[in-house]
Model the fold of this input.
Amino acid sequence: MPNQNDEIKKVSIIVSRGSLDGVYPGLILANGARMEGIEASLFFTFFGLDAIVEKRMDKLSIVTVGNAAMRLPWGQKMPTWLGVIPGMASFATWMMKKEMEKLDVPPVREFLQMIKDSGGQIYACKLAMDMFHLKKEDLWEGVDDILTVGDFYQKAAGGIVLFT
Done:
């Protein structure tokens, strides 16, 4: 059992959701780890694969229906029924991207490239790839490999595993 004074040397982050609010936490954690000199890898599975599928990665959006934490621009909680109004998801996505831009948070593709350029590793889940009938050619060119769960555990060994 590690103690409080142990230095973190490696993190493996599992990204399973394909919405902007599902993908960015993993990207932020991986980038932060690399900035601290910590080895970092991202493992994209299930709908999280959308973040590394070439044709989808630039089109990620915010999920407004069923998002109990969704807030209106002025901070008030958004009633769930408001999320079903046509165009609400597009509006919420536009607002979030605008706020991220103000904070100099890069778009998904650029963020992945930054992580990759700093030595981070990016993996796709083989089971999810098979389930969604995806091939290596469907993925962003920066993906290092397609891993089974066993392969992921071997690469993650000795580090911290985070699920976002």
Observations:
- The CA atoms of residues 65 and 73 lie 16 Å apart.
